[in-house]
Specification:
The protein is an alpha+beta fold. The chain contains twelve helices and 19 strands. Helices cover 50% and strands 18% of the residues. Strands 3, 4, 5, 6, 7, 8 and 9 form a seven-stranded antiparallel sheet that branches. Strands 14-16-17-19-18 form a five-stranded mixed sheet. It has a three-stranded antiparallel sheet with strand order 10-12-11, with helices on one face. The longest helix is centred in the middle third of the chain and has 77 residues, at 311-387. It is rod-shaped, with a radius of gyration of 58 Å.
Length: 582
């Protein structure tokens, strides 16, 4: 039976492993591929979003800058002077007004307007004189003038190569046609002359007004008719200002006899603010794109690009990827754990079933053996009494043996019935207050003859001042009967076959009913299973029995609120103690 049971348990284990491993392996393969796909999608979507953001930002910045360039390209050349004469104005004679560029730029992207003389390379600002007049404090006026001089020198250095190229080109004749992209501004010669000396005229007008005199208008003698000024298109160029790359819009203006460069310098702060119109940090950088998140700007010959910093977005994507992996592994490992526990539960149930089957088979064999012995004695002595066999003088002894075997048979039947009620949950007791000392003495007296006939010497030790306790008499009788029967069986080969029944007060005020013997005691390895059904130890010389006595002792004790425990006897042997609460 044992080998068959082990075979069934091994078979159940193998089938359970197959039932758990194969579905879990398939789940892992499919799930890991799906997780990898989701992670790839998250990463690709992040790259696409970053690229799309950079492209959108590049388009917006390019449109903004080119719209600014196109709007500024419509300005006439003389706006780049601090003062100018408007050829379309209604005033006659000497008349000049401040340039619209003489104040600070209205567009936050523009830092300064400037004009460069192609021959000398000198840079002038249309804002310089007007701005200085607006600053009241002398210290701040000097500081601003120093800043303007510094910026002028830096621009002169940065634009040097461009002015050299313009200086080397030939100037068109007064009657030449405009080249591709140029426009021609035609001015009457007196208007052109006033624009050449607009600053001096402005001063003369101020002085003449102060002296109530008429200002004199200059005369341009280099041309007979109207003057043509060729104005080129504004184009984006890169120059270095204070060793930092900067973006300027430049145009070439060809005047009679000379050429100038006009344009404006973009403000670094304005460009920085322009890059912050998206949720991602971005930078305006010189050079062609170098990464996936860089997009070139369409800015004429100036090679710049927008670089988007998608580190935070990618960090979020990595967190999302880790979350996807964590969710999968949590679910997978949780599922595997549940499946493994379920499989182990099935194997455990099969093992328990086989173990119980073995125990019940062993119980049946033990019960048959235990019943056969008293039944054989009953038949033998009852036949002898019925047929008048044996020694007529021992008739009383034969009858006593019949009674003893009947009592033994009754104990076996009582234990079996008690265990059956225990398994069904119908084992009940009715505890009440009574004379525990007298009742224990009565139980011991009733069992003493049979024990002494078996070679046991019985001692009874009773305390006289026990507190009152509630107990069930039938339960106490069955507990004592099983403990005494157990002690008798396990002391059959002991040199000292004294069994002691003791009643005493415990240290916590409880009442302790103890049965002590001087046998071999209980081996350490089976003590934790001592009060389980069908546990009788594995010793070759273990006495016969069905393994239910101690189970019933524990169940009957707990049913009336008591506990039972095993300890080694101080003089050797076993000590079972039932502790009854007061």
């Amino acid at each position: 039976m044992g080998s068959v049971g082990n075979h069934r348990t091994a078979l159940a284990l193998g089938l359970t492993v197959l039932a758990v491993v194969f579905p879990c392996a398939a789940w892992y393969l499919v799930g890991s591929r799906e997780v990898a796909r989701q992670v790839t999608e998250v990463t690709a979507r992040t790259d696409q979003d970053a690229r799309a953001t950079a492209e959108r930002l590049a388009i917006q910045i390019t449109q903004r800058l080119n719209a600014l360039r196109d709007a500024e390209a419509q300005r006439p050349y003389y706006h780049y002077q601090p003062y100018f004469h408007d050829p379309e104005g209604a005033a006659e004679g000497a008349a000049v007004v401040p340039s619209p560029l003489s104040t600070a730029p209205r567009d936050p992207l523009i830092q300064n307007y400037f004009q460069v003389d192609a021959n000398s390379g000198d840079v002038t600002f249309p804002t310089a004189e007007a701005e200085l007049k607006q600053i009241a404090q002398p210290q701040l006026r000097h500081q601003h003038a120093d800043d303007q001089r510094f910026l002028r020198r830096q621009l002169e250095a940065g634009l040097n190569s461009i002015t050299l190229r313009v200086r080397g080109e030939s100037q068109p004749a007064p009657q030449a046609k405009a080249s591709l992209g140029q426009r021609v501004e035609v001015l009457p010669k007196d208007a052109y002359a006033q624009n050449l000396e607009a600053t001096d005229i402005y001063r003369n007008i101020k002085n003449a007004a102060a002296q109530n005199a008429q200002p004199r208008a200059p005369v341009f003698t280099n041309s007979i008719g109207d003057v043509q000024v060729f104005v080129g298109p504004l184009k984006w160029r890169t120059v270095y200002v204070a060793d930092e790359p900067s973006l300027v819009a430049l145009r070439e203006v060809t005047l009679p006899g000379r050429a100038v460069l006009q344009g404006f310098l973009l403000a670094a702060a304005g460009l920085s603010n322009l890059c912050q119109i998206t949720d991602l940090p971005a930078r305006f950088q010189l050079g062609p794109p170098t990464g996936n998140d860089d997009v070139a700007l369409n800015l004429d010959a100036a090679v710049w690009h927008i670089s988007v910093n998608a580190a935070e977005m990618r960090s979020t994507a990595r967190r999302q990827a880790r979350e996807v992996y964590r969710s999968f592994w949590t679910m997978f490992l949780g599922g595997v754990g549940v499946a493994a526990l379920a499989g182990l539960g099935v194997v455990w149930i099969v093992w328990q079933t086989e173990r119980l089957a073995r125990q019940r088979s062993q119980f049946a064999a033990s019960a048959a053996h235990e019943l056969r012995t008293p039944l054989a004695g009953l038949r033998l002595y009852s036949d002898m009494l019925a047929d008048g066999l044996g020694d007529p003088g021992k008739t009383h002894a034969y009858a006593q043996r019949v009674a003893d075997e009947s009592e033994r048979l009754g104990r076996i039947v009582t234990n079996v019935l008690g265990f059956t009620r225990l398994e069904r949950g119908t084992l009940k007791v009715q505890a009440g207050t009574g004379d525990l000392i007298g009742f224990v003495r009565e139980c011991v007296t009733r069992q003493q003859p049979a024990l002494e006939a078996a070679g046991v010497r019985l001692d009874v030790v009773m305390a006289s001042d026990l507190p009152a306790v509630k107990f069930d008499p039938d339960a106490i009788a069955q507990i004592l009967q099983n403990l005494l029967d157990n002690a008798e069986k396990h002391t059959r080969h002991a040199s000292n076959r004294t069994i002691t029944v003791a009643l005493a007060t415990g240290t916590d005020g409880t009442v302790e009913l103890s049965v002590l013997d001087h046998g071999p005691g209980v081996p350490e390895q089976i003590r934790r299973h001592l009060f389980e059904a069908f546990q009788r130890g594995n010793q070759p010389d273990a006495p016969a029995g069905i393994g239910l006595g101690l189970v019933l002792v524990k169940a009957l004790a707990e049913a009336q609120g008591a506990t039972v425990a095993y300890t080694d006897n101080a003089g050797g042997g076993a000590r079972f103690t039932v502790t009854l609460p007061t």
